[in-house]
Design brief:
Blueprint: E1 3-8, H1 16-23, E2 29-36, E3 43-51, H2 54-64, E4 68-69, E5 72-73, E6 75-78
Length: 124
């Protein structure tokens, strides 16, 4: 049975291919992924490696945890599965407090498009 490992402390220069190559010394690597920022594409400094067996995963932990890869000491541990994220629905604590956040009176600020109306009628 395959085992997924969390790899922390990666250098920003480490690639998925480099990660895969480093872990092959411990067994058959099914996948290796360096997690990147979705906007900049830069490494976030961690990744995941999936080993073919749990024995190979344990070997990777004992042999590679604390070792240096691309000039950085890495952390290797069993990956804890993350709870699935819900895609929609209301978020707890959401919304703006105080009636919509439009300033005093709820009518908006200077550039809100609402004309100022005096509180007392004006006699002409």
């Amino acid at each position: 049975m395959a085992s997924k490992l969390y790899i922390g402390g990666l250098a920003y220069s480490t690639t998925s291919d480099g990660l895969r190559e480093f872990f092959t010394q411990c067994g058959n690597v099914l996948s290796a992924t360096v997690i990147t920022d979705r906007f900049s594409g830069q490494s976030r400094g961690f990744g995941f490696v999936e080993m073919a067996t749990s024995e190979e995963a344990q070997a990777a932990i004992s042999q590679l945890n604390g070792r240096e890869l691309d000039g950085r000491r890495i952390t290797v541990e069993i990956s804890n599965p993350q709870a699935p994220r819900s895609g929609g629905g209301p978020r707890p604590g959401g919304g703006r407090p105080g009636g919509g956040g439009r300033g005093p009176g709820g009518g908006g600020g200077r550039d809100s498009g609402y004309a100022h109306r005096p509180s007392k009628p004006v006699k002409w």
